[in-house]
Amino acid sequence: RVGLLSESIVVPAVSVTWIERDLPTTTMTGTASDATLTIDKFKVKTNAWRVVVSKSLIMFGLAAGVGQDTYQQSATISATVNNSSLCPASGCMSTIPGDVPDMKRTNVFADVSLNLPFFKIVLEGGQASGGSAPTYNSFQGAEANRSQVYGSLGLRLSY
Predict the structure, then answer these.
(1) Pick from 64, 67, 57, 61: which is nearest to 122 by CA?
(2) Which of 111, 1, 101, 100 is nearest to 48 (CA)?
(3) Nearest to residue 145, comparing CAs of 156, 157, 154, 133?
């Protein structure tokens, strides 16, 4: 996190944050009866940036921000069926390359904090929206890329 503008009596603080998270690359295989499903080289990478404006008002604090989250994922998915009545002697195999387009979502949020002598209580709410999530199946209910409202309550000790 980098502070762009320090808070003063009249002016709020402004900061920019960059976060990058990656999961280890993994392979999973499942077998049932005469079928095998393999997900190979599955990886997920995310990065996010935020711009936050905050102001402390003695016992209370206010903050608001906006940012963008980017999700990158890929895998190779293959299935094999070893059933002589359905497939030739070598079995049936199908492979799907798993390059999925990156997804970008906008994130807006606000929080209010109560500053007490030895700890701070923070309540935050926000909304993540946007992006596209192409699927091969149709599901009832909400879309995979629907707007998501969230909230959190935090406690931070300070001395």
Answers:
(1) 61
(2) 1
(3) 133
Nearest Cα residue to 127 out of 73, 76, 66, 44: 66
User: Are the beta carbons of 92 and 80 closer than 8 angstroms?
Assistant: yes
φ/ψ bin of 130: left (φ > 0), alpha (ψ from -120 to 50), beta (otherwise): left
Which residue do the tokens 């499903």 mark? 37
Write down the pTM of the prediction: 0.71
Per-position b or e across 6-36, b if 16+ CB within 10 A of its CB: eeeeeebbbbeeeeeeeeeeeeeeeeeeeeb
Residue-wise pLDDT for 117-155, tens only, equals 899 999 999 999 988 776 666 667 777 778 899 999 999
Residues listed for the chain: 159
Structure tokens at 100: 């999925």
